[in-house]
Amino acid sequence: QVQLVESGGGLVQPGGSLRLSCAASGRIYGIEDMGWYRQAPGKERELVASITRGGTTNYAQSVKGRFTISREENTSYLQMNGLKPEDTAVYYCYAIRSLSGRSWGQGTQVTVTS
Predict the structure, then answer these.
(1) How confident is the model at residue 37 (pLDDT cuts 50, 70, 90)?
(2) Taking the CB of residue 16, how many other CB atoms lie within 10 A of it?
(3) Rounded distance between C-alpha atoms, residue 85 and residue 88, angstroms
């Protein structure tokens, strides 16, 4: 019922920056938390960052100081600075709506060259 469309992935050199966007549409009333997971080859999916409706943020230790999550109504953004090769992964955004659970974006590839 909530549709999430991601954009902003790409290929960058170490130290570069990207900004991912996740736009929600459909039944967006009541969205609470939004955030981003990533999954790299051979690794478990991990929560990268999250933000509540009230603006409380959480980050994985590996990205603290480099990534910033923000939110404008029902669009979330992940600003990624100082990218490292180990950040290479498919990034998936999500939104949690209390009435219908979690919705996922389609995934966007981020590749950081070594």
Answers:
(1) very high
(2) 15
(3) 6
Q: What is the spatial distance between Cα 42 and Cα 55, in angstroms, rounded to a whole number?
A: 32
Q: At residue 81, does pLDDT exceed 80? A: yes
Closest CA to 33 of 83, 104, 96, 76: 96
Average pLDDT over residues 37-46: 95
Q: Are the beta carbons of 6 and 91 closer than 8 angstroms?
A: yes
Q: The tokens of 10 are what? A: 């790409």
